[in-house]
Design a protein that fits this description.
15% strand, 47% helix, globular
């Protein structure tokens, strides 16, 4: 009795279903891209500062290591050091964490890399 009540009014062909799924996936990809733009990977310093403020500093080193991997750098070649400083006026944080990278082999850090790791916007 219930099976008779729930009959689809029109069956979709296989291609229509695939189009719908593709459209749904592209919509999800767009939403994910929009979400990722809000979590801009270039504002690593702010994310690390929030993690310190929330007591999650344990996860900061792996986060910076992932950031280095995203920039085709080997994180095993770097020492990652965090420096807490007072946040600039108007910030929602009390302290901001500056990230210092040091190469383990003693070579100089590329200036673009050190600059990007501490970008605020």
């Amino acid at each position: 009795m219930l099976k008779n009540a729930i009959k689809p009014s029109k069956k979709l062909s296989q291609t229509k279903r695939l189009e719908f799924v593709d459209n749904e996936w592209s919509s999800l990809a767009f939403k994910q891209k929009s979400f990722m733009s809000r979590l801009n990977p270039h504002v690593l310093q702010m994310e690390i500062s929030r993690m310190f403020a929330q007591g999650q500093s344990f996860f900061c080193i792996p986060k910076v290591q992932d950031w280095l991997r995203d920039r085709q750098q080997n994180p095993d070649e770097y020492d990652i050091i965090f420096h807490e400083k007072p946040a600039p006026p108007g910030s929602d944080l009390v302290k901001i964490v500056e990230i210092e990278l040091r190469r383990k082999d003693g070579k100089a850090i590329e200036s673009w890399l050190q600059k990007q790791v501490n970008e605020q916007s």
